[in-house]
Amino acid sequence: MKEIIDVRVKVRRTAFDKTKTDLLGVGLFSGVKRLDKLNKELNAKLDGAIERVIRLGDFKGAEGTNAIVYGNAKTGAERVLLVGLGEKKKATLDTVRKAAANAAKKAVAIKAKSVSLAIHKAFEGRFDLGAMGRAMAEGTYFGGYCYDEYVTESEDSRLGRMRVEIIDAEAAKAKKLNDGAARGAIIGAAQSYARTLANRPANVINPPKLAAVARKLARGSKRLSCTVFDKKQLAAKGMGGVLAVGSGSQSEPRFIVLNYSPQSKAAKSKPKVGLVGKAITFDSGGISIKPAENMDQMKLDKSGGIAVLGTMKAVEQLGLGLNVMGIIPSAENMPSGTSYRPGDIITTYSGKTVEVLNTDAEGRMILCDGLAYAVKQKCDVIIDVATLTGACLVALGRYMAGLMGNDDKLVKQLQKAAEDSGEKVWPMPSGDEYAKEMKSKIADLRNIGSNKWGGACTAAAFLRQFVGEAKWAHLDIAGMDIFQKATEFTAEGSSGFGVRLLTSYLANLAEK
Questions:
Q1: Of residues 252, 214, 277, the one with CA closest to residue 474
Q2: Cα 300 from chain centre
Q3: pLDDT tens, position by position, for the chain (512 residues)?
Q4: CATH class of the region 198-511
Q5: Which CATH class is domain 6-171?
Q6: Closest residue by Cα to residue 133 from 115, 145, 119, 122
Q7: Which of 341, 387, 345 is nearest to 363 (CA)?
Q8: Which candidate in 55, 245, 438, 455 could, as Cys together with 391 as Cys, close a disulfide (CB 3.0–4.6 Å)?
């Protein structure tokens, strides 16, 4: 098993024409009549090559596009990569992030060992330099990622590592870029870490092995600790939801708790945040078995739990002044003679009973135990993240996650974090009208709605019954967990969605 591409990002104070590099990345907007200052200077040193490419129509500056112009003795760069930024009036920080991802993906394709980015220069002070440094670092990791751990032979082998530097000639600007890039590199690396874990198949990652990964993450840290409940401990605690879902598999369920306690005294005045992530390491649907088509993608049903794991990694490395608990209930949902069945009534950790009508509605069965545990641990704010419903994918497609909650302020804070991180969300309802559909005649609740409509909303309404008085939000990331094919910005497979979003939310909360 080989290592994933080792990406490293730093900031260096240097002029673009004095930078010795395999690839110099610069940004250009579409429909712009005049080149910005950097590209004008670069064009002159390249004897008009940039204007020539644009005039010929080979590069129009559309977002997600790029073109290579070969360097000369005047530039120091072997190649200059023109990266499309799209329309200038529509530019956001995510435009910066995507441009860096585009450049990094191209660098991997052409096997560039060294990459220099001056993409921020095209924005001419439109955004804060620290924020742009963070966005470029995050984008570099995102675009430079490729999952090929188990590819033993390849006709087109790739480089083992890529070194990227963000460059600026002015000391003050370089410092601000560096402040942001240092944070962005931590978050970008945490997202890549999450993508790798999520991409690993069920014969490599099962609940006990995921628990071992969590323990390894906490090992040696003074601020991060890990506790794992095994099947016997789950039974003693009465965590019937997790036990039921995991009952059909030879890989026994686990309940993983990562606790981050900063040394800062100021953290005591901040709310304690519980992150609860669904980690079904493989979801066959159980007795209510899924169709065979695309069932291989169900290794990604652990993406919510993995997002929490990646976020906890970022939180620890950033040293945020906030108490955060990562709660990851994990099971494998398989059909067998010991599986839970439609018609069963399960007593959950909260004491509430649930009538099982479909064993493929398993995510809510393990999350309800996780949410109740967060309440018992006195978390002031609880956010759960899960590939929970196909209904959310139907509603929102593969463009944004569903966001539900019981506190308007928390919802708005997560929307702000989505804007900062580029991981989009859309608010959806989960009120009493949806909760009524989850009432059972023979138990407290049923695990699917009384009709087929609004499944994402009824699922969230179900979860809402387990959070008590805590401020709570639910992120349904179904559809956002995977790129089914490569895009202009990254490789196919796990997206690591949620790591940037949750880390942004926590960082914003810590800085208040």
A1: 277
A2: 12
A3: 789 999 999 999 999 888 999 999 999 999 888 999 999 999 999 999 999 999 999 999 999 999 999 999 899 999 999 999 999 999 999 999 999 999 999 999 999 999 999 999 999 889 999 999 999 999 999 999 999 999 987 767 788 999 999 999 999 999 999 999 999 999 999 999 999 999 999 999 999 999 999 999 999 999 999 999 999 999 999 999 999 999 999 999 999 999 999 988 778 889 999 999 999 999 999 999 999 999 999 999 999 999 999 999 999 999 999 999 999 999 999 999 999 999 999 999 999 999 999 999 999 999 999 999 999 999 999 999 999 999 999 999 999 999 999 999 999 999 999 999 999 999 999 999 999 999 999 999 999 999 999 999 999 999 999 999 999 999 999 999 999 999 999 999 999 999 999 999 999 999 98
A4: alpha beta
A5: alpha beta
A6: 119
A7: 387
A8: 455
Question: Which pairs from 64-70 meet CB under 8 Å and 24+ separation?
Answer: 64/98, 64/102, 64/487, 64/488, 64/489, 65/102, 65/488, 66/102, 66/103, 66/106, 68/106, 68/110
**DSSP category for residue 444:** S
Q: Is the dihedral of CA 51, 92, 125, 18 positive or negative?
A: negative
Q: Is 412 within 8 Å of 508 (Cβ atoms)?
A: no
Which stretches of 358-488 are DSSP H helices?
Answer: 363-376, 390-396, 408-421, 432-436, 455-464
Residues with active-site annotation: 290, 364
What residues contact 190, with CB distance under 8 A and at least 6 apart?
A: 310, 311, 313, 314, 317, 499, 503
Among 147, 139, 127, 193, smallest CA distance to 164 is for 139
- Quick one: tokens of 407? 């506190």
* Burial of 434 from C-beta contacts in 10 A (0-12 / 13-18 / 19+): buried
**Strand arrangement of the beta sheet that strand 79-87 belongs to:** 6-13, 161-168, 114-117, 23-30, 79-87, 66-70
Rounded-to-integer distance, Cα 276 and Cα 63, Å: 35
Enter the DSSP assignment of 3: P
Walk across the sheet containing 445-446 and list its strands. 345-347, 353-355, 445-446
Q: Which amino acid is at 166?
A: I
Between CA 158 and CA 171 the distance in angstroms is: 35
The full DSSP string for 171-203 is HHHHHHHHHHHHHHHHHHHHHHHHHHHHHS-TT
What CA–CA distance (Å, rounded) separates 210 from 215? 9
- Contact between 206 and 40 under an 8 Å Cβ cutoff? The reply is no
The terminus-to-terminus CA distance of the chain in angstroms comes to 43
Domain positions in the chain: 6-171, 198-511
How many angstroms separate the CA atoms of 458 and 172, rounded? 52
